[in-house]
Amino acid sequence: MIKFLAPSSALLVIALLTLTACGEQKSNSNADSSAQTQKTYNWKLVTSWPKNFPGLGMAPEKFAQYVNSMSNGRLTVKVYGAGELVPGFEVFDAVSQGTVEMGHSGAYYWKGKIPAAPIFSAIPFGMTATEFNAWLHYGGGMELWQALYQPFGIKPLPGGNSGPQFGGWFKKEINSVADLQGLKMRIPGLAGEVLKNAGAIPVTLTGGEIFSALQSGAIDATEWVGPYNDLAFGFYQAAEFYYSSVWHEPGTGLEFLINQQAFDDLPADLQAIVEVAAQAVNESTLAEFNARNNAALKTLITEHKVKVRQFPAQVLQELKRQTDALIADQVKADQDFARVWQSYSEFLASMRDYNQLTLQAYYQHR
Amino acid sequence: MIKFLAPSSALLVIALLTLTACGEQKSNSNADSSAQTQKTYNWKLVTSWPKNFPGLGMAPEKFAQYVNSMSNGRLTVKVYGAGELVPGFEVFDAVSQGTVEMGHSGAYYWKGKIPAAPIFSAIPFGMTATEFNAWLHYGGGMELWQALYQPFGIKPLPGGNSGPQFGGWFKKEINSVADLQGLKMRIPGLAGEVLKNAGAIPVTLTGGEIFSALQSGAIDATEWVGPYNDLAFGFYQAAEFYYSSVWHEPGTGLEFLINQQAFDDLPADLQAIVEVAAQAVNESTLAEFNARNNAALKTLITEHKVKVRQFPAQVLQELKRQTDALIADQVKADQDFARVWQSYSEFLASMRDYNQLTLQAYYQHR
């Protein structure tokens, strides 16, 4: 605890930190002209989620509300669910082409276009939410992300974090690596490739298809998000075992995508409002997921008698081994991935040591 | 990972969450009148830290920068270090009396006036930063905090978090509870009382006095903040052992104090700007502490050969036992403390289980 009765003689004056400061956005020479400050801007924001989807879909709604309030209606943001204006997987293109001014999504969806993009959402055995925010703001992450999207005319901003996602729902217990062989699991992205290399059969299904596939036995297992969203989908009715093990998405970052030209056209005060509103949403979304996941897990256990399990160490070690191999391939295959991964992995290694000494030890002894 | 190709048939529409929404602040019936939106407001913000102090002191600077930019100068916030306008420990009174419009401080400083206040900054063996944010925004914490400060005409807002604070600097190793007996340690607040009940002698010193007291042997040990601030104070030159054990301040919340009348006098858009700016600062301050603490710890270990230690389990158990006893006394002594503690402790117990299954397990196996 700090206790100053008077300014300390050891006072240190450090230079104003400028990394993520909003006040710097003064690129518009005519930003403060009277004509521009009176002008009204009406933006469309498309998302990869159903309208008002719990957690993920509420982040852009809250952003819109903040911007509308702070700008006193000079900048209005209207949020569209996936498929209302453009399909969920075309959010990036719509923002890039200027069809809409903004999007809310997850960077791993753009892997086909930008192989390094998944690093800005979730990497198996990667950073937690607070580690990720530290890297983005104070470890060089934002600069790398901006450089990656710049050729597409898109300015990215962090747009919330789901916190740790759960290992998923399984119809049978997983007691060894042998139990993964031939296991049909709905799990997309890098984690799906990892599981495939470990002997399982990853299946790609959209949100609406998963429950019936799990219930019919067409798949043996599925991951989704965490207790809050999983409870709403009713997976406990179709699978007995809920694996709380965190491995494939330890702290999934969401993103705001902004058309750079649309952003540049705003006066400086509205630019600041967009940036600060996004940062506030980044904070509250993680808080919401933590609170609601926690409450939902209690409901799943006490009301729905779900059996919570952890993967055995052997299984996690195999998944980690396959993850390392897969990332080594990505580093060889793509220069951008290699460059971003170097920054990410160095920061992660360092934070891993730090959190081992602090939070990990604290969770154990408190 | 969520993957929607089209709005899911399992789409869930939930009511707009209104817990911390800014748009609701429409209490001024004349908020949007032309006269009021053109008016300029010049606010003073006093703090309990030296001007521009690393981490803690940068949070209000960033807040001021955000507000100034977003309001295009209609609301300017000028930040004063401790002692420049009012002493660091008179921040609360200055805001309450309307001498200044805002303050930035830590709630545990007001324990003499409001016994329950420390719950909104740090409680030994209490919540981590992300747990605390979840409780404030989605667990009823903010409402309790507002009710506690309301009689003083103050509106509180979260104002950043230091993350886990370190156990402190010791001239000798602590291998057992016996080593605490008669130990003179600079440690204020509830933690000081806990340590006293465990046999040590807590000493109160201001920031500028600690280093020389530690070097001369007038004290045997001191806690301060974490590696980032501790490195700057040079404590490694006066004590050999740095205990990374987190116990007394697992995630210290900072606060913005706002004079309620001054807030009510603002038009609705400037009210929203104040609230959202504070929330954004709450996010970035934790990120800054995590990144800089981590880097500073590396410097302490590699350049200054500091010996990092953890308290043995026996010592932590004794500190926990004394903490529980002290809190039981507070619950008996003060109705407000009892009411807030019930909410806090229930949420903590629940999050403890949740994070044990998720983050704690993840830190161990990743």
Automatic annotation (TrEMBL), chains A, B:
Keyword list, A-Z: Metal-binding, Signal
Signal sequence annotation: 1-23
Keyword Metal-binding: yes
GO terms assigned for molecular function: metal ion binding
Residues noted as binding Na(+) in the record, renumbered to the chain: W224
NCBIfam families: TRAP_S1
Name the record gives this protein: TRAP-type mannitol/chloroaromatic compound transport system, substrate-binding protein
Source organism: Colwellia chukchiensis
